[in-house]
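Aim 2, interim progress: modelling of the iron/sulfur cluster-bound target.
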Amino acid sequence: MKQKEARAFIENEIKDFVKTSPLNRMPDNPEQPIFDAPLIGFASSEDPLFTAYKTIIAPAHLTPHEALAIALNKKPEELPAKLSIITWILPIAAKTRQSNRLQKEAPSRLWANTRWYGEQFNDALRTHVVNILHEKGYMATAPAIQPYFKTFTNEKGPYSNWSERHAAYAAGLGTFSLSDGFITEKGIAHRCGSVVTDMPLSPSYRSASTAFSNCLYYADGSCKRCVERCPAGAITEKGHDKIKCRDYTYAALKHLREEWLVGNTGCGLCQTKVPCEFKNPVKK
Ligand code: B12
Ligand code: SF4
Ligand code: SF4
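Predicted structure of the complex, ligand included:
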């Protein structure tokens, strides 16, 4: 398969799965999708960013070669020199975003369902992409659902050994922001995922001039709407305090997890009722 055809094949498979999977539906309303049509991008393991992430994130952050090698019980040098990273953005449906705009202290029920059931769908999509690559005879892994996937804590707060947003940044799908969220052409209210494979796929073009250029605050010092939206006081002009955010979402919202029977409600008030909610606010 030529690289252009291979990209189209992967894109169609992901779009189709998002459109047709019964898991991409709210549990109490099968008519209501959790996520809209995805954005899809491709990155190359040859991109020096993946080594830079060992400094930008932490030494424990895996390169694509490490992530695939551990999954296959091989050494990184036993794999082909060039690997591809497939990444996707799942924009959160309008009805859910609108319900969260009304919230001031805690997420809406639809947002919490998106965090919990939407991530189960995202896991199913990761598995689906790995399976179709295996069927075509390629190696593949979704690092975020591997047993080796871990979340650590340092003085700045939690981080993981495979950051989905940093993979999406490498694939040109968006940039980071004052609130820490990842702003794409479909905005900041989304969930994302990725797969590493040896299928040859040409990388997408990364047009952003910096890792923060889609955020109005970094573009011209304006906006800061996410600062006002955060009930935990976790966002300031200095950025996002991950410890305050984590403590708020886990400790202060415990009663909602119990009431709604979900393992995590998320929060996302900083991702709704803000200019970057469903579009790139810097784009003219
Ligand atoms: C740990 C974790 C958390 C922690 C810490 C979040 C964090 N910012 O790291 C806590 C519990 C606080 C958290 C909260 C939330 N989370 Co969370 N979380 C994760 C997890 C599991 C790992 C994140 C990670 O490894 N981060 C690594 C650290 C270092 O990243 P960072 O601090 O954001 O990175 C900064 C630096 O790298 C910096 N930087 C500095 N210099 C440079 C230079 C370059 C070149 C680059 C590229 C970057 C860069 O830019 C970044 C932004 O400041 C991911 C899932 C995954 N496996 O990726 C989800 C994930 C990040 N969470 C997600 C979501 C949605 C949330 C919440 C909205 C909760 C909810 N569902 O309602 C909040 C939002 C918090 C916020 N304001 O961003 C989504 C993010 C999607 C998005 N729209 O951005 C993810 C990707 C899950 C998913 N599969 O979709 N989360
Ligand atoms: S609300 Fe404004 S300042 Fe905050 S992340 Fe979005 S664009 Fe940036
Ligand atoms: S930074 Fe954390 S606590 Fe604050 S609004 Fe965003 S998700 Fe909620």
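The two ends are 38 Å apart (CA to CA). The chain has a mean pLDDT of 97.
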